[in-house]
Design brief:
Radius of gyration: 28 Å
Number of domains: 3
Strand order of the largest sheet: 1-5-4-3-2-10-11-12-13-6
Shape: globular
Length: about 375
C-alpha cells in the first residue's frame, strides 16, 4: 500500500526489508510469540546484514517498543481489503497491554515492510477511516433493527447481487425493464454458485472472502430466514416465486453505481499463551454510507450479525469503541483468577521443645523460647 504523507502527521513511519526482521529480534530482545506475524530465523540472521533502512528504526527511541509490539503482540487484528475494483491488500494492527498505541504493518508492491506507529487508538482509527471509508450520509435508513442470524444477512446480500445481475442482463439484452423475480430453487442454486465462486466483484462472496474466519461459521439456511427477509423489505414471496422488493432494488442500484471497496477484519488475542479469535467485522463502503457488519456467536453456537449504516465520523467512534472492548475482553480473560482458597501454609514448630507455634506468636507457648 502506498501511504499519503498528509494523513500521517504525528505518526512514526519506518520501512524495512523482510530480512531486517531477524535483526529487529536481536536488537529489541523480543523472543516472539504464537500471535506474531514473523518468527526468528537464526541461520539467516547469522549470514545477513540489515538494510540501510534498518538504521532509522535501530536509532529510534521507539526501536525496542516497536520490536516488542511487532514480534510479541498481545492483540492482532488481521485486515483484508478489496471488493469490486478496489486493490486487494492484507495488513495487521498490533496492540499490547502496555499502552494504547497501535502498530500497523503493511507490505508494499515491492515487498518492503511498512511500519506505522500510532501513539493511541484514536489516531489509528481516524487515519484508517480516512483511507478506507466513505464520508456517508447521515440519514441512511436502518436495514435491520436488531441482532439477527447471519443467514438473514447472507440472503439479503444475495438479493442485492441478484438485482445487480438482472440489471446487467437487461442491459446486455437491450431490455428497458429489469426482471426482478426468481424461483426459490434458482435463488438457492445461485446462492451456492455465488459462494463457491469467491468472485469479489459481487457483494456476497466478497464478504466471505474478506472476513477472516467467516467461512467456518455454522450456517444453515431455513425458510424462516426468507420470511425475515420479506419483513425487512428485501423480497416478496408468492408460492415458490421470490420477487426483489424495494430494499433490494435500492441497494442493488447503490452498489451498481457507487460501491467503493470493502474490508474484513478479525481480532485475535494471546490468552494464556494461545491464540484465540475474539471478534470479526465486515465493512462495505459506498458513496451513500458505510455498511458496518459485526458478527458474534449465540450461546447455542449460531452465527449472528448486527448491521449499522454509518458516516465516517460515526465509523471512527464505532471502531474506537470496538478496539477498547476487544482490549478489555482480552486482558480480563488473561488476568489470573483471584485466589479464593484458604491459606495452606505448613505449621511451624519450636526447635527446642517441639511444640506447635501458633501464627502471630513471638514466643513458644510450650517453653517460652523467642521465635
Amino acid at each position: 500500500m502506498e501511504m499519503n504523507q498528509d494523513k500521517l502527521a504525528n505518526v512514526e513511519a519506518f520501512k524495512l526489508v523482510p530480512g531486517d526482521i531477524d535483526h529487529l529480534f536481536r536488537r529489541s530482545g523480543a523472543a516472539g510469540n504464537p500471535l506474531a506475524v514473523f518468527q526468528y530465523n537464526a541461520e539467516q540472521a547469522a549470514v545477513s546484514s540489515p538494510s540501510p533502512w534498518f538504521k532509522a528504526l535501530a536509532e529510534s527511541p521507539l526501536c525496542q517498543k516497536i520490536g516488542r509490539q511487532l514480534l510479541e503482540p498481545e492483540i492482532k487484528i488481521a485486515f483484508h481489503t478489496g471488493g469490486n475494483n478496489a486493490a486487494e491488500d492484507h495488513y495487521y494492527a498490533l496492540l499490547t497491554r502496555e499502552d494504547d498505541s497501535v502498530l500497523a504493518q503493511f507490505v508494499n508492491k515491492d515487498s518492503h515492510l511498512l511500519l506505522l506507529y500510532f501513539p493511541d487508538q484514536d489516531a489509528f482509527v481516524t487515519w484508517w477511516a480516512s483511507i478506507y471509508a466513505a464520508a456517508g450520509m447521515g440519514d441512511y435508513p436502518a436495514l435491520f433493527g436488531e441482532i439477527k442470524e447471519t443467514e438473514v444477512l447472507i440472503c439479503a446480500l444475495h438479493c442485492v447481487d441478484i438485482y445487480r445481475r438482472f440489471y446487467m442482463e437487461s442491459m446486455l439484452d437491450y431490455r428497458g425493464l429489469v426482471d426482478v423475480s426468481v424461483s426459490s430453487a434458482n435463488f438457492v442454486q445461485l446462492l451456492k454458485k455465488s459462494l463457491a465462486s469467491g468472485d469479489k466483484r459481487w457483494l456476497l462472496p466478497t464478504m466471505f472472502e474478506l472476513t477472516p474466519g467467516l467461512r467456518s461459521s455454522n450456517i444453515a439456511l431455513k425458510p424462516e430466514h426468507l420470511k425475515q427477509l420479506e419483513a425487512a423489505g428485501f423480497i416478496t414471496i408468492q408460492d415458490s416465486l421470490l420477487t426483489m422488493a424495494e430494499r433490494s432494488r435500492l441497494m442493488g442500484t447503490e452498489f451498481i453505481s457507487s460501491w467503493m471497496n470493502a474490508t474484513g477484519w478479525q481480532a485475535s488475542a494471546l490468552i494464556k499463551g494461545e491464540e484465540k479469535s475474539l471478534s470479526r467485522v465486515f465493512l462495505a463502503s459506498t458513496a451513500f454510507t458505510n455498511h458496518l457488519i459485526s458478527f458474534d456467536s449465540a450461546a447455542s453456537g449460531e452465527s449472528r450479525f448486527r448491521h449499522k449504516a454509518v458516516t465516517s465520523p460515526e465509523l471512527t467512534g464505532n471502531l474506537l469503541s470496538w478496539l477498547q472492548a476487544v482490549k478489555k475482553v482480552t486482558f480480563d480473560q488473561a488476568a489470573p483468577a483471584p485466589n479464593t482458597q484458604k491459606s495452606t501454609a505448613k505449621p511451624k514448630f519450636c526447635g527446642q521443645c517441639g511444640a506447635e507455634i501458633r501464627a502471630g506468636k513471638k514466643f513458644c507457648t510450650g517453653c517460652g523460647k523467642p521465635v
